[in-house]
Design brief:
Elements: H1 8-13, H2 21-25, H3 32-45, H4 49-58, H5 63-69, H6 73-76, H7 79-86, H8 89-101, H9 103-113, H10 117-128, E1 137-138, H11 139-149, H12 154-170, E2 179-180, H13 193-199, H14 215-228, E3 238-243, E4 260-261, H15 262-267, E5 270-272, E6 281-289, E7 292-298, H16 300-306, H17 312-336
Helix pairs in contact: 3-4, 7-17, 8-10, 8-17, 9-14, 10-17, 11-12, 12-13, 16-17
């Protein structure tokens, strides 16, 4: 998910619409859903009620967050438009710099987890422009807004708010000081709180897991996330395909998960331009690119990228940026010889 910076005006104007001054000053403390949530945390997680009430009194509704989540780029843009956001010369240049600065850590991550450096660097590049844009919202505001004022996904964000408070307690951090994206994602790799607790790793061995500021932990955590979500070491990601005149349109974009095989898709009119095992799990993808329709065959590793963000556009942007990064590093290596 992309990060949109909240404004001071938004935090003041939209913190408690139609509420009196006392209610507005109370933030989410008086919100019935928040009160029930507090009850749950006190009972099930042994939080102190006064501490929770103090935090929620300061948590503010952000209308800009609700506006942003209603129009994510992954659902409003074509591939032709979407790629222009991430496949830029400046992002490539910054990515090469990040790779060089963290070469040893990236190599160690590949040796331990089997995830290539270019994939890790591309993820961090797409998510936060290599740490330059980690998000300007207080995570407490973001998750409270979405948990209590965004009914379509309230259960998900309520769960993430719970995970966030547990994370803050485990790390002995003040939850009101931590910042992230409009959806509550944090750090270099923009982990949601549940992902932070489940997949972030202490890759530098200092006894503390920090993906906000520690690039070693961030790199190791991204690699660990991929392995835990089915990344297959040494396998490819996605391949261009050629279609015949009567290809089966019903299998196009039918699932992010590779429900078919390369052989089955070939029988349905989709022929990969590269040689692939007929029994490899695969999906048929159609994207609207700058030159018209593009057809691709996505493999298990393409699906693994979508576990980060459930979007074909996102996965394709990560893959293509990763290829640009790999080629740029290869070219520089050759030039040094």
């Amino acid at each position: 998910m992309r990060t949109l910076l909240a404004t001071a005006v938004a935090s003041l104007v939209f913190s408690a619409p139609f509420a009196g001054a006392g209610e507005q000053a109370a933030g989410y403390k008086l919100n019935p859903q928040a009160q029930s949530f507090i009850d749950t945390l006190v009972k099930e997680e042994n939080f102190e009620r006064k501490e929770l009430e103090a935090w929620f009194a300061q948590a503010q509704k952000q209308q800009s967050i609700l506006d942003a989540i209603a129009r994510p780029a992954e659902k409003t843009k074509t591939w032709a438009e979407y790629q222009d956001i991430f496949l830029t010369s400046s992002r490539l240049e910054k990515g090469v710099e990040f790779w060089k600065a963290n070469r040893e850590t990236l190599q160690r991550a590949e040796e331990q987890y089997g995830v290539p450096p270019q994939i890790i660097v591309a993820i961090i590049g797409v998510e936060t422009r290599y740490g330059a844009h980690k998000g300007g919202y207080r995570v407490m505001d973001a998750l409270s807004t979405l948990a209590f004022d965004y009914p379509p996904r309230s259960p998900f964000f309520t769960k993430e708010l719970r995970q966030f408070l547990l994370l803050a307690r485990e790390q002995q951090r003040d939850p009101l000081t931590l910042k992230g994206s409009y959806a509550g994602a944090m750090g270099y790799g923009q982990f949601m709180p549940s992902s932070y607790r489940a997949y972030a790793t202490d890759f530098d061995g200092d006894g503390f897991v920090d993906i906000w500021e520690n690039t070693e932990d961030a790199i190791g955590s991204v690699a660990n996330y991929f392995v835990r979500h089915g990344w297959q070491q040494g396998e490819s990601v996605v391949h261009r395909a050629r279609v015949n005149g009567d290809y089966d349109t019903e299998v196009l974009n039918d699932s992010l998960k590779p429900l078919h095989t390369v052989g089955k898709l070939k029988a349905k009119g989709f022929t990969p331009l590269d040689k692939l095992p007929a029994d490899a799990s695969a999906s048929a993808i159609k994207l609207e690119g700058k030159q018209g329709a593009e057809f691709w065959i996505g493999l298990q590793n393409f699906y693994a990228i979508t576990r980060y963000n459930h979007s074909r556009l996102y996965a394709m942007a990560v893959y293509q940026l990763s290829e640009q990064l790999r080629e740029a590093m290869d070219q520089q290596a050759v030039a040094r010889q």
